Amino acid sequence: MVSQWAPKLERSRISSAVFSGASIGTVVSLSASGLLCKSEALGGWPSVFYVFGAIGCFWYVLWVIFIYETPDEHPTISKEELFLIYESEENQLSQKDLDIPWKKIFTSVPMYGVLFGHIGSYFGLAVLMTELPSYLSGVLHYSVEASGLLTGLPNILEALGGMMSSYVADKLISSKTLSVTTVRKIFQSIGMVGSGICLLAITVSGCQASVIIILYSLLLYVNGFKYSGYNVTHVDMYPPMAGVLFGLTNSISSLSGIIVPNMTGAFTATGNTRSNWNKVFYVTAGVYFISTILYDIFASAELQPWGSEKKEKKQSNTAETKS
């Protein structure tokens, strides 16, 4: 959707706006879940599933009514808006016009660079979203409700960091001060390395809850910079297949959702102690650092050769048809 609707020089901002919705949703869901679990009038923990299930159904109805796959299909879009979106030739192709070059995708070195960046981000997300509440309640002795609020509210800062950094990223790209690839790597590095440093700082903060919450908030703020990093590189590499590329890296990265709980369980098997949890944070910081190095070495935000070939082929066929 972003590849079809976002003008080339606004990709960072539009992508960040879309994915910031996940951060805002996290604030609402984590905060509300603790309150719903405690509410006997609403039935306790089962109400979490009923409430958010109903919200999901309502959202689906809105999606069906208002969302269109391409700008051409939108009934009220203006010619000026269409021109702005299609000013970049890359936006003129849709996935249905092309065959998916699976072999070239799986043998693309830059593609693996983006995959490493995605894995690092998802691994850290799994730790922060699924395991940190246990740390707050088990080590810092917060209640379930307080853990939900403290884990959720700082996500607003991630959305803020994502939006602010995306504006700067697009300005750097439009001014041609730096190449698109350099901009992506800078913001990916700030997001991941900054997050890793904050995690290491948490390990030496003892049980000072206020300091830990401040560091966690700072972590999420800089983490938002990744929205202008790997998160939009899929669109840069091959706009018509951005959804396919993101789906591939996201599917592989989601294995972190299996690894992280087992890793945390192994490290904390002897008790919810600060030293045991520090091991979790050390590993997570290491994943942040290593994934960033691999992304910076191998990733590219330039249109890939296999993308150029397909584009030229399609344009050639179009020209022949017109002639």
UniProtKB/TrEMBL annotation:
<keyword id="KW-1133">Transmembrane helix</keyword>
<dbReference type="GO" id="GO:0016020">
    <property type="term" value="C:membrane"/>
</dbReference>
<keyword id="KW-0812">Transmembrane</keyword>
<protein>
    <submittedName>
        <fullName>Putative inorganic phosphate cotransporter like protein</fullName>
    </submittedName>
</protein>
<feature type="transmembrane region" description="Helical">
    <location>
        <begin position="149"/>
        <end position="169"/>
    </location>
</feature>
<keyword id="KW-0472">Membrane</keyword>
<feature type="domain" description="Major facilitator superfamily (MFS) profile">
    <location>
        <begin position="1"/>
        <end position="303"/>
    </location>
</feature>
<dbReference type="InterPro" id="IPR036259">
    <property type="entry name" value="MFS_trans_sf"/>
</dbReference>
<dbReference type="InterPro" id="IPR050382">
    <property type="entry name" value="MFS_Na/Anion_cotransporter"/>
</dbReference>
<dbReference type="InterPro" id="IPR011701">
    <property type="entry name" value="MFS"/>
</dbReference>
<dbReference type="Pfam" id="PF07690">
    <property type="entry name" value="MFS_1"/>
</dbReference>
<feature type="transmembrane region" description="Helical">
    <location>
        <begin position="12"/>
        <end position="36"/>
    </location>
</feature>
<dbReference type="GO" id="GO:0022857">
    <property type="term" value="F:transmembrane transporter activity"/>
</dbReference>
<feature type="transmembrane region" description="Helical">
    <location>
        <begin position="109"/>
        <end position="129"/>
    </location>
</feature>
<dbReference type="GO" id="GO:0006820">
    <property type="term" value="P:monoatomic anion transport"/>
</dbReference>
<feature type="transmembrane region" description="Helical">
    <location>
        <begin position="48"/>
        <end position="68"/>
    </location>
</feature>
<feature type="transmembrane region" description="Helical">
    <location>
        <begin position="280"/>
        <end position="298"/>
    </location>
</feature>
<feature type="transmembrane region" description="Helical">
    <location>
        <begin position="241"/>
        <end position="260"/>
    </location>
</feature>
<feature type="transmembrane region" description="Helical">
    <location>
        <begin position="190"/>
        <end position="221"/>
    </location>
</feature>
<dbReference type="InterPro" id="IPR020846">
    <property type="entry name" value="MFS_dom"/>
</dbReference>
